[in-house]
Specification:
globular; 190 residues; mainly alpha
């Protein structure tokens, strides 16, 4: 197996990082400005997290935590002017449910703390001007992917779902987020 060798492990890290790394390149090429640069930076931190997680869950998690914090700052620059009451309450529930789900699935309070940033990213995405069927759905897929990862550490054995769904749901989520943000930013420039 490729990951069982030192060289194979490096290739695996490069392959994993290149998927979202190429989305960062796409976003950098298709957008302009400081705010857009924050979004590109968030994607680049996720790509770094994809690589580092092969070495250490803590190092990879730290890169993803930083990615979520940068994404929150980015989305806050594009808030909906008057979100509905239902959207406000829904996002508050989302913000609370994500770290709670992280804790229930993992049994680890540090993962729940990470879940606060993950939930904040999803909440900010849903409160932003970006299309919900892409960016909001992408954020939810990211959450679902992380929940599947965290289920590997806790009392609930969801096998074989994590092995089958972590990568597809994570990448599809990132793809929806990247394309939804980029297309909207390009419309704002016109």
């Amino acid at each position: 197996m490729l990951s069982d060798t030192a060289l194979g492990g490096l290739w695996l890290m490069a392959i994993k990082a290149s998927a979202v790394g190429l989305l960062a390149v796409y976003a950098a090429h298709r957008t302009k400005g400081l705010r857009s640069g924050m979004f590109v930076f968030a994607l680049a931190l996720s790509a770094l997290g994809d690589a580092l997680i092969e070495l250490s869950l803590v190092a990879g998690g730290a890169a993803f935590l930083a990615s979520h914090l940068v994404a929150i700052l980015f989305y806050r620059g594009y808030l909906r002017p008057e979100p509905s009451v239902a959207r406000k309450w829904g996002t508050i529930l989302l913000f609370l449910a994500v770290p709670l789900g992280c804790y229930i699935l993992s049994g680890d309070w540090t993962i729940a703390l990470y879940g606060t940033a993950l939930g904040g990213m999803a909440m900010a995405a849903w409160l932003s001007l970006f299309p919900q069927w892409r960016v909001g759905l992408g954020a939810l897929l990211f959450v679902f992917s992380d929940w599947l990862i965290f289920s590997r550490f806790g009392p609930y054995d969801l096998a074989p779902l994590p092995d089958l769904l972590v990568w597809p749901t994570y990448y599809l989520g990132q793809l929806l987020i990247a394309t939804g943000v980029v297309q909207t930013l390009r419309r704002f420039r016109r």
